[in-house]
Write a structure and sequence with these properties.
The chain is α+β, with helices and mostly antiparallel strands and 263 residues long. The chain is 27% helix and 27% strand. The chain has 7 helices and 12 strands. α4 packs across α6 (182-198). The N and C termini lie far apart (51 Å). The relative contact order is 0.15. The structure holds biotin (BTN). Biotin (BTN) is lined by residues 34-36, 58, 61-64, 67, 69, 78-80, 123, 133-135, 151-153.
């Protein structure tokens, strides 16, 4: 019988040689509350970095800043990966969301999409609409090694159940003309993210910021983040967004939802 939801065997076979699923714990569900919540529970029970939890649908999918993530069945990607932040953790923790965004954009391009843009910190946009998002959480910020749960949701095929919850969202059939299987995109994302994190101690840190900017929407857009409104300028070294407010001061944005108000 064909597997329902995410096919762990197919995913494992698509990982690069030397990183086959045999040495990686991959846990799949037809449906789960949230792959990120499930992975956090398993981390508390002692599973190692590299563990993957994936599901065919989620009943309580979570987005950034407490939002809900619509997670219907039908071929979308809902996957969480545990990564170990390389030391120095305080510096490298902020690199994880950027690295995840770049790895996800690259995975989609390698699957055939011509252009995927990143909206800070790691919304994945196609034709200006949100195809997917990434949620990075450290369940135990004091633990060493510091483990981060990187959860990715990509609308590779199914439409959101409740369009009102998914304003501005796109599905791949809408913006690309057809669906894509989740496993190859997932394998490229997982191996790409781990490769990038492994280079952070060396020149990878500067390269990451450059690669992120090369895939990002152009700066110079008017945005609102919480109570801050101004024009996007750049990223700082820690990966935070710099916004010039109308009185000329520069605000440093470390988190939140960025509402795009136009050029
Ligand atoms: C965002 O708000 O843009 C981030 C969305 C992240 C959704 C993914 S789906 C897999 C993982 N499990 C969750 O509950 N959330 C993330």
């Amino acid at each position: 019988m064909a597997p329902v939801g995410f096919d762990a065997e197919r995913f494992g076979a698509l990982l690069p040689p030397g990183d086959r699923a045999a040495r990686r714990l991959v846990v799949t569900f037809e449906t789960v509350d949230s792959t990120s919540s499930e992975l956090a529970r398993r981390l508390r029970a002692g599973v190692p970095a590299g563990t993957v939890v994936a599901a065919g649908s989620q009943t309580a999918g979570r987005g950034r800043v407490g939002r809900q993530w619509c997670s219907p069945p039908g071929g979308n990607l809902y996957l969480s990966l545990a990564v170990a932040v390389p030391p120095p953790q305080a510096d490298n923790l902020t690199a994880v969301p950027l690295a995840a965004g770049v790895a996800a954009a690259d995975a989609l391009v390698s699957a055939g999409l011509a252009e995927v843009r990143l909206k800070w910190p790691n919304d994945l946009l196609v034709e200006g609409r949100k195809l997917g998002g990434i949620l990075c959480e450290a369940p135990d910020p004091r633990a060493r090694p510091l483990l981060v749960v990187v959860g990715i949701g990509l609308n590779l095929s199914a439409a959101p159940l409740e369009p009102a919850l998914a304003e501005g969202a796109a599905t791949l059939p809408e913006v690309f003309g057809c669906a894509l299987p989740a496993e190859p995109v997932a394998a490229a994302f997982v191996s790409g993210l781990e490769r990038r994190l492994a280079t952070l101690a060396g020149p990878g840190r500067a390269a990451l910021a450059m690669d992120w900017k090369a895939r990002a929407e152009p700066f110079g857009r008017r945005v609102r983040v919480g109570t801050v409104e101004g024009v996007t300028l750049d990223l700082d070294e820690a990966g935070r967004l710099l916004v010039r407010i109308d009185d000329g001061t520069i605000a440093t944005i470390g988190g939140g939802i960025v509402a795009d108000l136009g050029p």
